């Protein structure tokens, strides 16, 4: 067996790329070292130069591509290489779908090899049009000389890229952000300075309701008073007739978080109305809502398929957020209970259930393990548990609780194949993985969602 060679900064060598890593970078092996190469694609032969050396891996940049992938393409976005918001525009869409499924397979092979070998891992569900799908943008505002810029920071820097037309944003959000930026410049309204922390306007947030056509503009500012406020509102309204709400959020802190705690209505409605399948939602400036509504319908339909409801089942929607998954399942469930640790989410979830007239749907503040244990004592044991946890995966205490309660079906929705596969190590002691369905919620990026159907093993 060849010995592992210690790598050095600036070292150059040829490399064959074997697969994509979870951040969309190419992965190759040089003398038993793992090498990550940004922009390289599986199957490519490249010459690289080492740019970073760590104990277990190295990072390298491409010097030249000796044999390109047949799936390589020219990125359509002019700031693609600087921005870092998308990672896969240089890969054809069919190639992206194939590699996203492979990321799921890789994670399973690492943590639960038997699942990788025996489970039906389906082709990734993609979009007909994988561009301009994001319904919300939050662009930072800065000033250089007399020009006001709005955009995103170049990856790993504090340089703001002025973005006029983002390839993955809904065109309306781009149009309105650019229009608002120009108005701020014209009216000479002071712009936040990230270094001195002076100035007023920090961020322009635009969300458009794809189904209803209503748009909300939110200006995030460092203080309440806005000069030329009436004229500013009047001019923003002229940018596009879809604008039905203008709000102001005040964030005085030096923080990377976009929103502060206080939101004020400047014009029109406090919320915009959006439909998702049969469901309807009122969205305030800070409310969480899926960024790709078109694919969310497909994702939730996959959850519904995996839940296999007949009208007789008791369902628990753990990590429920504002209740969307539970509400999606409600028409075919006998009873739905959901919980979340964020009190505001539960307030919204209760309101959403009321608005839809569901009497058999209830929401509770707290952890899933607390409530499941309490309900078990009261004699309530769910037939189906559905989860959609954060990227960190399920809490070990929650897995322990599920394995005690043993619902017949467990539907696991995940946005992180690694933590999903790790969690399966415990879950598969009692559950069989029937199938895994990858769903592409964020085309052009390295992220992939999964819906997995788990069934309690027969004794």
UniProtKB/TrEMBL annotation:
GO terms for molecular function: methyltransferase activity. The active site is at residue 415. Its EC number is 2.1.1.190. It comes from the Bacteria. S-adenosyl-L-methionine binds at residues 290, 319, 340, 388. It is an enzyme of class 2 (transferase). Residues 6-64 form the TRAM domain. One of its GO terms (biological process) is methylation. PROSITE patterns: SAM_MT_RNA_M5U, TRAM, TRMA_1, TRMA_2. Keywords: Methyltransferase, S-adenosyl-L-methionine, Transferase. Belongs to the class I-like SAM-binding methyltransferase superfamily. RNA M5U methyltransferase family. NCBIfam families: rumA. This is 23S rRNA (Uracil(1939)-C(5))-methyltransferase RlmD. It comes from Ureibacillus galli.
